[in-house]
Write a structure and sequence with these properties.
The protein is α/β, with parallel strands linked by helices. The protein folds into 2 domains: about 350 residues, Up-down Bundle (Na+/H+ antiporter like fold); about 300 residues, Rossmann fold (3-Layer(aba) Sandwich). The chain contains 23 helices and 15 strands. It has an 11-stranded mixed beta sheet, with helices on both faces. The longest helix has about 35 residues.
């Protein structure tokens, strides 16, 4: 806009120097190519199974929101037909505007949800399902409407029929020619590999060919590229290849050129006729409000909370690059004036710029991750089933998690239920997945998830008498929102403990290596929002977990660590030592926390200690230096150390240790034990007790974090209805 006729472009000399006719041709060509590839990649990432799994709520949101907006615009345009500006007195233009602006583009919506980290949220999934349904309705209506227009211009109904048959033939070409060729190319690629360059070029060529064919039969080029992307398999290897090799170039370089091209055509100085641009803005507001209240009505009728209903209505009214593309197409076809084009582009900028930050402000999906009972190991009865959500990022995490679970001593009198969740980064797809694991019987390939589930099933078989129950799940989600799926499953399954692997582990050569730094962010977010207790397992040794120590400093996290240690103490094959760190008597507190600490330690000594396999030790230290000395001298005797996270808890016993805290998810003591400078190579389990819970609809605190919320009922398992 700054370079356009509104500001700098008003100088004819500058315009001729920077934007000659030849340069405009190059810009237009690159813009068209980039937008076509962008739409194609969105199509590849789209999961058509979303339509099959769509609930009634998504269908209602799509139909009511779209048709209410559409009929409101047409009705008011008819009611004020005598006041319509001459440049807008085209029934085809008003009808086209009404149905285009009543839609919620799946392309725009996906980009917005990705930017706001709401792709895996409940409202995000509902919005994507509704917009995808609306896009398919739009495609069918557009095909029929475009065929009618082609015939009406020539006043030949036979031509309309021929145009629609050409559309059906084009669909047949995509399904029966282009798709099989692409599937053959994908099947030739080895598992875990990207497409080679000739294969990638062939797929891009097919996408461009589909765009050209759709233009040849009277439709827009983007429609052909999008349809081709929809029918070919996403994910690995095609979707991943497009993301790795093409996405940054298209979205970071070429696509901005398309937006710049539209901005160059905006002329604010040309807004002279208030009746014309005022009427257009009036129709824009009517379409937006119709969509908003249509979606809001459906959500409130389905008894969604007011905040969620308002948020979804805002999400569905969002506008973006597809509306910019429509305005440019209408201007090129001389259906609208430059003044109308300017008003439409400004409307997209205003509504797009306002709705996104407003959605981010009012909708917080983590607010629902609140349990209304204490879900901790400490508050789980010894004879009750202990529900554990074991998160697995890679196969390397399996052995250490299974070794820890084995030491937990599952039995028929104290069973454990393990929800195994394989977490995979979402690449090459737009729709996240959180679903129960199902083996693909039609394929002979053994996936990483299959190996993980097989290992846990074998563990279950080694513990008979129904002492271990395995329920596997799969999660395909971006790292930025992966914690939402973990917390959602923990809440839905009423887990008492979430086990997370540390983002570093012991390599084959004995060094400590980082698997993926993004995993650390996931762990930190889970610790912050989990509706139950959380344990982070740092595997720094290959030794079996037969000698365990619990370092006890006091507080809710340490009590939770000791409660887990007491379950381990039930295992006759494991030795356990409780080391309680205490200041001198004259420096000790006598508050409620101290009484709670004394109560659980006394219970442990009374029930567990035999001074042989289970031992209690008390170490009196003055400061952090004394604590480090004791830990350094003792840690090498054990194969597993269990400590509380103690986030934000500074005491005399750990004074000065937080200054070198490298891993905040491990807390002060856990960070010390996992540090490469400490010298010890002992696996460490860092435990944090549940911090978010409520009762009777009133916000409660679990030791340190105040939670403000309203009572909500956990949704049914993965049901979008």
């Amino acid at each position: 806009m700054l370079l356009g006729p509104t500001f700098i472009g008003r100088s004819m000399g500058f315009e001729k120097l920077l934007f000659s006719m030849n340069s405009w041709e190059h810009v237009n060509t690159l813009s068209l190519l980039s937008f076509m590839l962008f739409i194609f990649m969105i199509g590849v990432k789209t999961d058509l199974d979303m339509i099959r799994k769509t609930g009634k709520k998504a269908i209602a949101v799509a139909i009511v929101g779209t048709f209410l907006s559409f009929f409101l615009v047409l009705s008011l345009a008819y009611a004020f037909r005598s006041h319509i500006p001459p440049s807008f007195r085209n029934r085809v233009l008003i009808s086209t505007f009404a149905y285009r602006w009543s839609m919620t583009s799946y392309t725009v919506l996906t980009c917005t949800l990705t930017e706001l980290n709401l792709l895996t949220s409940k409202l995000g999934r509902l919005a994507m399902s509704a917009s995808l349904i609306a896009d398919f309705v739009n495609l069918t209506v557009s095909a029929g409407f475009q065929s009618y227009l082609i015939g009406s211009k020539q006043k030949d109904l036979l031509l309309s029929g021929m145009s629609f048959l050409a559309f059906l033939g084009f669909i047949g070409f995509i399904v029966f020619v282009a798709r099989p060729v692409t599937v053959w190319i994908v099947n030739r690629t080895p598992e875990g590999s990207l497409l080679d360059e000739p294969s990638l070029i062939a797929v891009i060529f097919l996408a461009l060919l589909c765009g050209v064919l759709s233009e040849a039969i009277g439709f827009h080029t983007n429609m052909g590229a999008f349809l081709f992307g929809l029918v070919i398999p996403g994910g690995e290897p095609l979707g991943v290849t497009l993301v790795e090799r093409l996405e940054r170039l298209v979205e970071g370089v070429f696509l901005p050129m398309y937006v710049v091209q539209s901005g160059l055509r905006v002329d604010l100085a040309g807004l002279k006729y208030i009746m014309e641009w005022g009427f257009i803005e009036f129709l824009v507001l009517v379409s937006i409000l119709g969509k908003f209240f249509g979606v809001l009505f459906v959500c409130l009728y389905c008894k969604m909370s007011t905040r969620d209903a308002f948020s979804l209505a805002l999400i569905m009214t969002n506008k973006g690059i597809l509306e910019v593309e429509n305005a440019g197409f209408w201007l090129d076809a001389q259906m609208i004036t430059h003044q109308a084009f300017t008003v439409l582009i400004l409307s997209v900028i205003i509504f797009g710029g306002v709705t996104s930050p407003f959605i981010k402000y009012i909708y917080r999906p983590e607010d629902r991750f609140i349990a209304y009972k204490r879900r901790t190991v400490q508050h789980t009865k010894p004879s009750a089933e202990l529900r554990i959500l074991a998160c697995i990022y890679h196969q390397e995490n399996v052995n250490s998690i299974l070794s820890l679970l084995e030491s937990t001593h599952p039995s028929s009198s104290s069973p454990i239920c393990i929800y195994v969740l394989h977490l995979t980064n979402l690449v090459g797809r737009a729709a996240a997945i959180l679903a129960p694991y199902k083996r693909n019987k039609s394929s002979n390939l053994i996936t990483e998830t299959d190996h993980i589930v097989n290992a846990f099933n074998y563990f279950s078989q080694q513990n008979p008498n129904n002492s271990v129950t395995i329920l596997p799940f799969v999660c395909l989600s971006p790292y930025s929102t992966m914690h939402d799926d973990v917390c959602s499953l923990a809440l839905d399954k009423k887990a008492a403990l979430v086990l997370l692997p540390f983002h570093k582990h012991l390599a084959i050569d004995g060094t400590i290596e980082s698997i993926n730094p993004n995993i650390q962010n996931v762990n930190v977010n889970v610790l912050h929002y989990a509706p139950c207790s959380v344990g982070v397992l740092a595997t720094l040794s290959t030794a079996t977990m037969s000698r365990v120590a619990v370092y006890f400093f006091g507080g809710p996290d340490d009590r939770e660590a000791l409660a887990y240690g007491m379950r381990i103490a039930e295992n006759d094959t494991v030795g356990l030592t409780l080391v309680r760190f205490r200041p001198p008597k004259e420096l000790r507190d006598s508050g409620m926390e101290m009484k709670l600490d004394d109560a659980i330690v006394d219970e442990f000594r009374r029930r567990m200690v035999d001074d042989n396999r289970v031992v209690y030790r008390e170490e009196v230290v003055i400061d952090g230096e004394g604590t480090v000395g004791v830990i350094r001298a003792m840690s090498s005797q054990f194969s597993l150390l269990i400590v509380g996270r103690r986030e934000g808890k500074e005491s005399r016993l750990t004074e000065g240790l937080s200054a070198w805290n490298e891993y905040p998810e491990l807390g002060v003591v856990g960070d010390l034990l996992a540090s490469t400078d400490f010298g010890g190579r002992v696996s460490t389990l860092v435990v944090q007790q549940q911090t978010r819970f409520g009762a009777g609809g009133k916000g409660q605190t679990a030791g340190r974090q105040k939670v403000h919320h309203q009572r909500q009922v956990a949704p049914a398992e993965f049901d979008e209805e």
